[in-house]
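User: Fold this; tokens only.

Assistant: Input:
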Amino acid sequence: MIELTEKEQRFLKRVHEVTHFPWTNMVKAVDANGKAMRLSRATFERLRDDGILIRSSSDLTSNIYRPISAPVTPQVEDALSDA
């Protein structure tokens, strides 16, 4: 079962889009208003590997991820339902 920390739950409530730049392994996150948010690469990789963030588009230089619309656990559903 996926366990989210309090910080991850707050992040998922606000995040709109996460951009990953594979060649530099840099991650940028923004909320719906375009305001930058902090996200570590380790947290990004965990959320991606757990299926909470899914790739919505990609091009030669970056991959864009968004939170899933069908939550995988009740805890994730609670975090995403408030968004």
